[in-house]
Amino acid sequence: MDKIVGIGEYIISNVPGDFIKTFALASCVAVTVYNAFIPLSGMIHIALPNPVDIEQAKRRPGYYATSGIPLLVHKLCREYGSQRGDLQVKLFGGAVSLKTDDYFKIGLKNIKAVRETLLDMNLKITEAQIGGAISRSITMNVLSGKIEITALPINF
């Protein structure tokens, strides 16, 4: 069954026939997590690096790298029985704008926050297809952890 991850959402599945998908990752970053021993998969679609305050993090934890990634990993370990050391982490998205007036550089800030959060949690990234000026949609096979990517140029 297809499970769709919206912006600021995450999905976890241990059903071998499931596929977890998210669409149109430009400056947003998808973090996928896979445990081959269970099998168990999770994905989060991060929109921003961190919340302005704790209330934002409580309302929409998956929207932010600094609150969403720990939540996803905690659930994988506590609720699904994964060992943290068995998790394979991959990153997708974080595109940069071709506009010269891209003042905020959200894609780059998202990538930095994701990497720092994973480093703080002692989680290693096994693959990263990030940056560039493309929009990525990804599909994750829960059974195998394999990722299928569809990429399109970002048009302005």
Automatic annotation (TrEMBL):
Give the keywords, sorted. Chemotaxis, Hydrolase, Receptor
Reactions mediated catalytically: L-glutaminyl-[protein] + H2O = L-glutamyl-[protein] + NH4(+)
Q: Which GO terms describe its molecular function?
A: protein-glutamine glutaminase activity
Question: Out of the domains of life, which is the source?
Answer: Bacteria
Biological processes annotated in GO: chemotaxis
The enzyme's E.C. designation: 3.5.1.44
Belongs to which family? Belongs to the CheD family.
The record's HAMAP family line, in alphabetical order, gives: CheD
Q: What does this protein do?
A: Probably deamidates glutamine residues to glutamate on methyl-accepting chemotaxis receptors (MCPs), playing an important role in chemotaxis.
Q: What is this protein called?
A: Probable chemoreceptor glutamine deamidase CheD
